[in-house]
Amino acid sequence: MKKTYHGSCHCGAVRFAAEIDLTAPSLRCNCSYCLKVRCWASQVPPTAFHLLAGEADLNAYRFGAGRERHYFCRHCGVRPFGHGDSARSGPFIGISVNCLDDASVAELAQVPITFIDGRHDEWDTPPQETRHL
């Protein structure tokens, strides 16, 4: 069930609201970037995302094909969300689940996780090992 959640970076300069279904699978990827930042994302369509504050406080990082923009707060370094356009799912906003301020611990503990083998560009296949993700 979709619900509006609010989230932020650590220092609070960047704040957002998003309609998210936390009963839908979230994503954990093993690509070189996601592995280093321990990405845990819930994807939503761009229409379900609203940046409330901090646009000028954001910097973006791109790598590889550059299809995704990984945003981070230039003050505290936290990555609250990213933007991408996937051939599989179209345009999306990837919300950092751990940046949701009003999701309860019980809600977060129940979020299903789909593991993705981004390291080998096998986007529909989980990696052989996931315990470190």
Description:
- With 133 residues, the protein is mainly beta.
- It has helices at residues 32-37, 105-109, and strands spanning 2-8, 15-21, 26-29, 41-44, 49-53, 58-61, 69-73, 81-86, 90-96, 113-116.
- A hairpin with a 7-residue loop joins strand 7 and strand 8 (81-86).
- The chain is globular.
- It starts with a strand and ends in a 17-residue tail after the last strand.
Within the largest sheet, what's the order of strands? 4-9-8-7-6
The share of residues in helices is under 10%
Intertermini distance: 26 Å
- What top-tier CATH class of the domain at 2-21 and 38-107 fits best? Mainly Beta
Rg (C-alpha, Å): 14 Å
* Major sheet summary line: 5 strands, antiparallel
In CATH, the topology of the domain at 2-21 and 38-107 is named Metal Binding Protein, Guanine Nucleotide Exchange Factor, Chain A
Mean pLDDT: 94
